[in-house]
Structures are given as structure tokens and as C-alpha cells.
Amino acid sequence: MKSRWSFIYAAIATTLLLTGCGTSPAKDQESTNGSTGVVENVDKGTVTEGKVPDTEVADSQGDIMKDAKLRESDEQSYAISVLPDYSLISEEPGKDSLISANNEAVFMRIETVAKEDSTYDYLAENMVAVLEASGDGSAPTEVLDEKSIPSGEGIENAKVLALKAETVSITGIIFERDNMIVRLTIYDTPEEEYFEQFLRMAETIVTK
Predict the structure, then answer these.
(1) Are 173 and 112 contacting, i.e. CB atoms less than 8 angstroms apart?
(2) Taking 60 as the threshold, does the pLDDT of residue 3 lie above it?
(3) Which pTM does this prediction carry?
(4) pLDDT tens sequence across 56-81
(5) d(Cα 199, Cα 186) in Å, to the nearest integer?
(6) 95, 183 in Cβ contact below 8 A?
(7) What is the C-alpha radius of gyration for the chain, rounded to an integer number of angstroms?
(8) Is 152 left (phi over 0), alpha (psi -120 to 50) or beta?
(9) Is 149:89 a contact under the CB 8 Å cutoff?
């Protein structure tokens, strides 16, 4: 009798053990898989929502000139795309001014000449004197930041000089395009609030 009860107790204990072993791993596995799935979804969602497509970045940079209209100089042989808040005015033969309607003290003088031997070198050297005379007499420094140097199809030998005075920031730019040498003098606020717009418009100057 004693051995019979021992057998029964042993059988019950074995059943409970097997039931426990069969249930626990399954629950643990289900819990683990569920947790992993949530983490993966959050990670993917974060990457997708946080990423800015390259095309959107390019579009935002190109928007600055979207409303510009092509204008031809009355006195010189070039055309330029002009933004709505600016006016192109001919001062005298060989010199035009692109003036901001929001601040008449801010403008870009435009000079173009036919490309000939040594003409570029002369205008580049003379540009230093123009900047010194327009500022406080201090020497201008060359700008090496590519974002501040005109670029685009056909633009070559671009050089930029800058001079900061107390009430004005003056930038001289010279480059070659096709058979033309373009020299620009930008008179901007000390914070250079208009520089990028002037630069983008300058990059559109072409022979008409």
C-alpha cells in the first residue's frame, strides 16, 4: 500500500513538472518576440520620420531664384535674372546698379568688359583699390569659402575679396564667363543680410 501511494505521488509530481516545463518556455518566447517587434517598429518609424529627402533640400536651396525675371542692361552687353525686390539701373556707360527696394543703401554695382589679354589682371588689382577707397582704408581679405564664391556653367577664375567697416560690408567679385569679364562690388549691411541674393543673381549674368 505504501509503495502504491509512493507511485501515485511520483506520477503527480512528474505531471506537474512536465506541464510547467512545457508552458514556461513558450510564454517566454512569445514575450521576447513581442518585445523585439515593438523595438524594431519604433526604430524604423524614427528613421523614416526624421530623414529629410535630398530632393527637398535641393528644392529649398533653389527656391531663392524661382521668382526672378530676366533683365537686359541698357548700357552693357549682358542680361541678368533679377529678384522682385530689386531694380536694375544704368548709372553710366559701363556701370549698372542692382538696388534693393527694401534698403536703398544696399546695392551691387555691375561692370562688364570684353575679355582681352591682361584685362582680368588689371581689374582684379584695381578691385583692391576700389574696396579700400569705399571702406575705412583697411586692406580687404580674400574669401575662400566656396559658398561665397560664384559658380555655375561657364564661370571661371572667380575671385572674391571682402572688407568690413563699421556701417557697411563691402565685397568685390570678379569672374570670367564666355568672352566677358564681370566685376561686381556689393555694398551690404554689416550683417550681410543681402549677400546670398546678390550672389545668386550674379551667377545668372550672361552675354546678351
Answers:
(1) no
(2) no
(3) 0.71
(4) 434 545 689 999 999 999 999 999 99
(5) 9
(6) no
(7) 36
(8) left
(9) no
Using alpha carbons only, give the angle 179, 185, 191 rounded to the nearest 5 degrees: 140
User: Which ranges of 81-194 would DSSP assign to H, the alpha helix?
Assistant: 119-134
- Alpha helices (H) along the chain: 2-50, 54-62, 119-134, 195-202
How buried is residue 183: exposed, middle or buried, by Cβ count under 10 Å (0-12/13-18/19+)? Answer: buried
Instruction: Provide the 8-state DSSP code for 145.
Output: -
Distance CA 204, CA 197 (A): 11
Q: Are 181 and 119 in contact (CB under 8 A)?
A: yes
Q: Which of 128, 121, 123, 160 is nearest to 144 (CA)?
A: 160
Contact criterion met (CB below 8 Å) for 156 and 163: no
- For cell 528644392, what's the residue? 59
pLDDT digits (tens, 9 = 90+) for 5-38: 444 444 444 444 444 444 444 444 444 444 333 3
What lies within 8 Å, CB to CB, of 22 at 6+ separation is: none
Task: Give buried/exposed letters for 129-154 (b at 16+ CB in 10 A, else e).
Answer: ebbeebbeeeebeebeeeeebbeeee
Q: How far apart are the first and last CA of the chain?
A: 118
